[in-house]
Design goal:
Number of helices of chain B: 14
Largest sheet of chain A: 6 strands, mixed
Low-confidence stretches of chain A: 1-28
Mean pLDDT of chain B: 88
CATH architecture of chain B: Orthogonal Bundle
Helix content of chain A: 25-40%
Distance between the termini of chain A: 54 Å
Largest sheet of chain B: none
Structural class of chain A: alpha/beta
Strand content of chain A: 15-25%
Number of domains of chain B: 1
Strand order of the largest sheet of chain A: 6-7-8-3-9-10
Distance between the termini of chain B: 29 Å
Shape of chain B: globular
Structural class of chain B: mainly alpha
Radius of gyration of chain A: 24 Å
Strand content of chain B: under 5%
Number of strands of chain A: 21
Radius of gyration of chain B: 21 Å
Oligomer: heterodimer
Order of helices and strands of chain B: HHHHHHHHHHHHHH
CATH topology of chain B: ABC transporter involved in vitamin B12 uptake, BtuC
Helix content of chain B: over 70%
Amino acid sequence: MTDARVGAAVPAAAPGHPDLPDGPWSPGEALLVATDLVKSYGPVQAVQGVSFQCNPGEVLALVGENGAGKSTVAKMLAGAVTPTSGSIAVGGQPLAYGSVRQSRQSGVRCAFQELALVPDWTVAENLSLPDGAPYRGFSQKKSVVAAAELLEAFDLPHIDPRATVGTLSLADRQLVEIARALAGRPKLLILDEASSALTPPGVAWLFQRIRELTAEGGSVIYVSHRLGEIAEIADRGAVLRDGKVAGEFTRGSWTDDQLISLMAGREAARFFPDPPARTTDATALSVADLRSEGVHGIDLSLGAGEILGIGGLQGHGQAELLRALFGAAPATADSWTVAGRAVSGTTPVRSVRHGVGYVPEDRKREGLALEMSVGENLLVPWFKAYQLGGRPRLSRERGWIDGILGALSVHTRGPNELSGALSGGNQQKLVFGRWMNRSRTVILLHDPTRGIDVRAKQELYEAIVDLAKQGVGIIWFSTEVEELVHVCHRVVVLYQGTVIDELTGVRLTGDAVVGASMGLRAAA
Amino acid sequence: MSVAAPARLPRSAGITRLRREGAIAPITAFAVFFLVYVIINPELLTRFQLQTASNLVVPLALVALGQLLVVLVGGIDISIGAIMSLCNVVFATQLEHVPVPLAILLAIGVGLACGLFNGLLVAYGGLPAIAVTLASAFIFGSLAREVLDRPGGGITKAIYLATSGELLPYLPVSLVWLSVVAVLLWLLLQRTALGRHIYGVGSNMESVRAAGLDARLTKLLAFGLAGMVTSLGAMMLAASTVTGDPRSGDAYLLSSIAAVALAGAAFTGGRGSIIGTVLAACTLGLIGNLLFFAGVNSYWQYVISALIIFTVVGLPVVWGKVAFAVKGRRP
């Protein structure tokens, strides 16, 4: 356990707290005891002496900003990363590190944020193959039957066990990953940002499963950025900051603001900026009857300086709509204009020329060239083949690059650092930053705040509002309803590839967005 | 969860898998090719011609299967021609000294050793497959010339008869051996966990590792297995030509890669089928013969092979675009 001095930083760690060494719980009773974990990558210490314990039937939350070391701790528990020093014991037995397999055998299962499913395997294969030896027979039929039973038992009948995982939506993939972790009836389940792509009903499903597991005496380590979820599910939690335990809390003894301050190490409050007042009636983008794969006739009109939210459950055409608008997927429409100019059969290259910017769903796969530098990644849309590249170009654009890095407060050693070395939130800022101050007409955002920490979120909100103030039209798909409700002028909710409802003014409430995304059209 | 589960048409799992593994196009291509061949040269179905044709394609098909295994785990084997030459000469020379079964085991063992050598460097050394196998190709090629520096060896009539001759009524025996190997390999890839791991490693190595599976061992075994299958191809070649030749494998490097490409396999790994590869190898192997019977200059066979690859690989892409354009217009 952390020493009382650190724990005392939080109101929750008052005397009598069950986790103090002299409390009623002795380490022998704890299911998981992590002692003084350290992990260094070369000179960088990602985790510096983290200790905590988790009791049977308990949900322990690990919170912290990106780069605070949560994921590294979770990976050490899962066996994917070997600690530099320190020890982990599960049920009194030391955990064998460095092997996910051994860790699985000692009853520890993990659902990772970066999905650990094989895209070319079917759901059934992904569910069944990790268990058992490699030199045994494998029957597709049996695995499909077993997977169907499992999915049925976990109340996921809409997932086809024969479907290839690569064809599923991100949310469904996350559900499969969680189902796989649950399938072994683990003693300890680690959920590392496992709810980041889930919709509200998906999260409710996950909580139901967690409660079933804890009722049987299993423990859950719940790593998440979503404070609302932690408030609901976590019995206890530890706040990590800069690789150390900064404090602890127990259920009901904290407020969002306290926790955020603790995570950030400074006074900070979670707040949503208001959308800026609109100064012009000009139209930035309008499209009538847009059709594409998964998009069945959508009419949209976006004003300059307007923030238009796109709501709905994942897999109802939002990703496809944004891709179609950017020209990344083939699409046709009856009429389609950007800044008054007609558009037809667009491609990403033409879209950029027309003044459209796009922040894609998956920053690692679609957003960044991880092997290239921060500066080059910012400049990516602005490189022409015949132009100067490399260092001369970077130094010429230095002013713009530094401006963006400063405005978004990207934590980087400079424009020459590899973008793959940055934390998730900072990578997301790069994908977003490349469109700033580049005279854009429209920027399309696909859930830019997914899986990034509170401070980075706040900085992105400010940047989005600033862009809108400059007259840029913004189309923003978010899985967080609160973002849509607070920061957007107007929200359209998609359902099965069409607009089911458009919400503005007093009708723009969280309940209305959630209701519409379930297919219910609220009465005006 | 998601309220609307998209309606799914019930479809045979086997067909779905073939489609996913890219096998539909090469199967269709082979059917068309075979039809054209039989129309131009109905004599193909006579005993003699069928046997000559199968003796021609079976070594290529086996080597292509070896290449497929490596491609499935996301690698590529440039040394496959050299492994083939080496096994070929080992088999041919050992027949002069040891009993036949031992010579076969020795050749297979050499293939396995070559594959494991590559696999160790790639899977455990973390080196790129293309560099490792390019370098080892030189080693294996030199070894082959060291074992036997000119065509020769002790292959007997009996071995020819058992592998490539008229052992069975009508059916060319080489096709039987190919089928046995292909079916065993198919069982391994589709009906054992190891086989599915091979697909998984090629699809996404990190995910396989995060799921608690031994990705490196899987890669190593795939390379070893590829070496063994290649050695079978080498022996079939030695037997059907009744000679061991240290350069015999050279021509098979590019053909095996072409066959795997034609089979619709993904060179990033994780996708590719046995049946598609076998039929693609048959198509490529017989083009020369077809042109001969059609009275076309045989130099054109490479151009025709290239056109077939373009067509078969390109058709699914074009098909996707056309299908979308048709669907997109519909209101």
